[in-house]
Amino acid sequence: MASGLDSFVNHTVSIITSDGRNFIGTLKGFDQTINIILDESHERVYSTTSGVGQVMLGLHIIRGDNVAIIGLIDEEIDNRLNLSSIKAEPLNPVVH
Amino acid sequence: MLPLSLLRTAQNHPMLVELKNGETYNGHLVSCDNWMNINLREVICTSREGDKFWRMPECYIRGSTIKYLRIPDEVIDMVKEETMIKNKQSRDQKGGRGGQNQRNRPAARGNFGGRGNKPGGPQKLFQKQKPK
């Protein structure tokens, strides 16, 4: 069965987890439970008082249970962002 | 590449495991299974707030409680080697899937037809009923 995620493999993706965090990295693989391999990843930390912080993390396996959204990133647009000037409220965790 | 193949390749490597409850476990991966249940050795557990620490020689973590695992960067390059070796091995095997090795199997299965002829089998029961 073809999954919609096939076309995302080896591309930069943004993953929002159910605890409200945002991970960016290269999607290296996934399985039927949406466990995810994210390579060269970093976390973007949002705050209303200062710009977006980036935390380098490296290689990750994210368990499918915690994945809320996977989005393809247009690197050209992403590179044009001035993260230090962006202020935003952090996301809340998903309420079950 | 499958996440669980990467995890298997990470055996004997250090890793950080964050649980859904926010606790983190740092240790060396001893083993894992298809449900992502994992065995760690030389573990340091950190509380959700990051203010309390526990050391333990080993621990077992149920896969379903895991949020994510952080793995050393170099492990991803080792998976590629492992899958390539596996593919080569299966290609080198004689016959392979549906090959000559399986030719004799249907005859062997036919042996099950012998059931019922043994002494003490259904026939004996039949004989017992005869004198009535």
From TrEMBL, chain A:
This is U6 snRNA-associated Sm-like protein LSm8. It is found in: Nucleus. GO terms for cellular component: precatalytic spliceosome; U4/U6 x U5 tri-snRNP complex; U6 snRNP. The lineage of its organism: Eukaryota, Metazoa, Ecdysozoa, Arthropoda, Hexapoda. CDD domains: LSm8. PROSITE patterns: SM. GO terms for biological process: mRNA splicing, via spliceosome. Pfam families: LSM. Signal peptide: none annotated. LSm subunits form a heteromer with a doughnut shape. Keywords: Acetylation, mRNA processing, mRNA splicing, Nucleus, Ribonucleoprotein, RNA-binding, Spliceosome. Plays a role in pre-mRNA splicing as component of the U4/U6-U5 tri-snRNP complex that is involved in spliceosome assembly, and as component of the precatalytic spliceosome (spliceosome B complex). The heptameric LSM2-8 complex binds specifically to the 3'-terminal U-tract of U6 snRNA. Plays role in pre-mRNA splicing as component of the U4/U6-U5 tri-snRNP complex that is involved in spliceosome assembly, and as component of the precatalytic spliceosome (spliceosome B complex). The heptameric LSM2-8 complex binds specifically to the 3'-terminal U-tract of U6 snRNA. Its main location: nucleus. Belongs to the snRNP Sm proteins family. It comes from the Eukaryota. PANTHER family: LSM1, U6 SNRNA-ASSOCIATED SM-LIKE PROTEIN LSM8. GO terms for molecular function: mRNA binding.
TrEMBL record, chain B:
One of its GO terms (molecular function) is RNA binding. Residues 84-95 have a biased composition (Basic and acidic residues). It comes from the Eukaryota. This is U6 snRNA-associated Sm-like protein LSm4. One of its GO terms (biological process) is mRNA splicing, via spliceosome. One of its GO terms (cellular component) is Lsm2-8 complex. Binds specifically to the 3'-terminal U-tract of U6 snRNA. It is found in: Nucleus. Coiled coil: none annotated. Signal peptide: none annotated. Residues 2-75 form the Sm domain. The gene is LSM4. Keywords: mRNA processing, mRNA splicing, Nucleus, Ribonucleoprotein, RNA-binding, Spliceosome. It comes from Rhynchophorus ferrugineus (Red palm weevil). Its main location: nucleus. LSm subunits form a heteromer with a doughnut shape. SMART domains: Sm. Belongs to the snRNP Sm proteins family. Residues 84-132 are annotated as: Disordered. Pfam families: LSM.
